[in-house]
Design goal:
CATH superfamily: Porin
Number of strands: 21
Largest sheet: 18 strands, antiparallel, barrel
CATH architecture: Beta Barrel
Oligomer: single chain
Strand content: over 45%
């Protein structure tokens, strides 16, 4: 707990925080940019009237493991620029890039002496593919051409995307980016269609761009159904991803979504989601329901089952629900989620975070089957520049030795998140500070094997992040 005291003293000097993850219903606007609607018949003016945005980011991360296991810490700082032109005959372009410098850190390449396992969280501030030393990272994130319609747009190139399946997962230095095309079109005030095709990805915590297949396995691969280390890294055959969304929003109080994603030769994913805000005497009450399914496509990634990413033989079904109440400055909710025992829910972690209502930063339920989870969250939202969130979750996982349903050896656990946010005003406008404390408590059977504890449970996590955007 010595690290906990140091962390509290540290964050006391910089106040409170800005959100760790963009909500999946939001547009991927991490630059705070506003696209110019001005159109010109002169290409020079399209560039003159364009917009430049900047972003500087500092990130401190610390992992305090159980007493006999290794701890880690790291600091990173970076900055980037984004330019988006005004329109030229309805066309506009955008380009952005970011540079990351390592500051002070523990030896993130030194493995724990007891488990033989390496660092999990801090290496994510840099390039997870680094072998023996941290290096400066520069990355081109966006480079696209967009054609603007009266009721939508079509975008080609490298871009940021925020969907339930592929999303920013922006809880480190930089988000995940994709290459392909994406379109959105409003049929009328209530109905909207969107979708696209993706053939390359730059995952969070990497400096390069990869084909879809190459990106799968850059993070931890876990174990296969036999309990051996998964061997699919570099062996997956999958050329493209297609995605479609239909959205019905009668008004601000009701929304219905259908999402479908086809990952060629790996899987089909279907998600339906209903969300409703009640009015009149029940004003402030809201609820949502998620029903999803996933089933294998082709051979799951490789004709050899031992090298396939998706080894499930049956469909996986998911059910989630949320009920909440928002009044005054408080917003509280209770969420549940259930993944059935047909197989493991599989979605490359390199592509994004879980879309479940029960998602809590610093852990996921991807890679597991036969899970039950419940999360209670309470937020204080006033004044707008200051927000505090307390989340408590219980996650029932399959036995750590049930390899067919537990890919990452994660036992049943409880999780506590304390999240502070502060948006500066006045002379410091543009500055956002954030602090996050996470504790994960082991509840399941670990068979006295520390590899099921290290970086997973009985662990304290501390993050301090400063953002300046202009």
């Amino acid at each position: 707990m010595k690290y906990f005291i140091v962390f509290l003293l540290f964050i006391g000097t910089v106040s409170h925080i800005f959100a760790q993850h963009q909500d999946l219903s939001e547009k991927p606007n991490i630059w705070n940019n506003i696209s110019s609607k001005r159109d010109s018949s002169i290409i020079l003016n399209a560039f003159k009237f364009g917009q430049i945005n900047g972003h500087f980011r500092y990130f401190f991360s610390l992992t305090d493991n159980a007493k006999t296991l290794r701890d880690y810490y790291a600091e990173a700082i970076g900055g980037g620029l984004r330019f988006e032109s005004a329109q030229f005959y309805n066309f506009n372009i955008a380009v952005s890039g970011f540079y990351i410098f390592p500051l002070k850190s523990a030896n993130l390449f030194e493995k724990d002496a007891i488990t033989g396992q390496g660092n999990r969280y801090e290496i994510g501030l840099f390039d997870v593919n680094a072998i023996d030393q941290l290096e400066e990272i520069n990355r081109l994130e966006e480079f696209f051409v967009q054609y603007n319609l009266k009721k939508g747009f079509v975008k080609f190139g490298r871009q940021l995307l925020n969907t339930p399946f592929i999303n920013l997962q922006d809880g480190r230095m930089r988000p995940t980016a994709v290459q392909g095309f994406w379109t959105e079109y409003k049929l009328n005030t209530s109905h909207q269609l969107s979708g696209g095709w993706i053939n390359a990805i730059a995952p969070r915590s990497t400096k390069d761009w990869f084909s879809n297949a190459e990106s799968i396995g850059l993070y931890s691969v876990g174990v296969d159904i036999s309990g051996k280390k998964s061997a699919y890294k570099g062996q997956v055959a999958s050329d493209w991803v297609g995605m479609f969304n239909y959205k019905y929003a009668k008004d601000k109080n009701f929304q219905f979504d259908v999402w479908y994603m086809y990952t060629e030769n790996i899987s089909h994913n279907l998600l339906t989601q209903w969300e409703k805000k009640l009015t009149s005497r029940w004003k402030g009450l809201y609820y949502g329901v998620q029903v999803a399914s996933q089933w294998k496509s082709g051979n799951g990634g490789n004709i050899d089952p031992t090298l396939a990413y998706n080894q499930n033989n049956r469909p996986v079904y998911i059910f989630g629900a949320q009920i909440g109440y928002k009044k005054g400055g408080f917003n509280q909710s209770l969420s549940i989620n259930r993944i059935n025992s047909g197989g493991k829910y599989l979605m490359p972690r390199e592509w994004g975070r879980d879309y479940f209502y029960t998602f809590m930063p610093r852990e996921r339920n991807e890679g597991f089957g036969d899970t039950k989870s419940a999360v209670y969250k309470i937020q204080y939202l006033k004044p707008k520049k200051f927000q505090t969130t307390l989340s408590v979750g219980y996650f029932s996982m399959p036995d750590v030795k049930n390899f067919a349903l537990n890919k990452y050896g994660l036992p049943t656990y409880g999780q506590l998140n304390v999240d502070f946010r502060y948006y500066f005003k006045g002379a410091l406008s543009g500055l956002e500070s954030q602090a996050l404390y996470v504790y994960k408590k082991n509840i399941g059977d670990t068979y006295d094997d520390s590899k099921y504890i290290f970086n997973k449970t009985d662990v304290h996590l501390f993050n301090l992040v400063l953002n300046f955007k202009f």
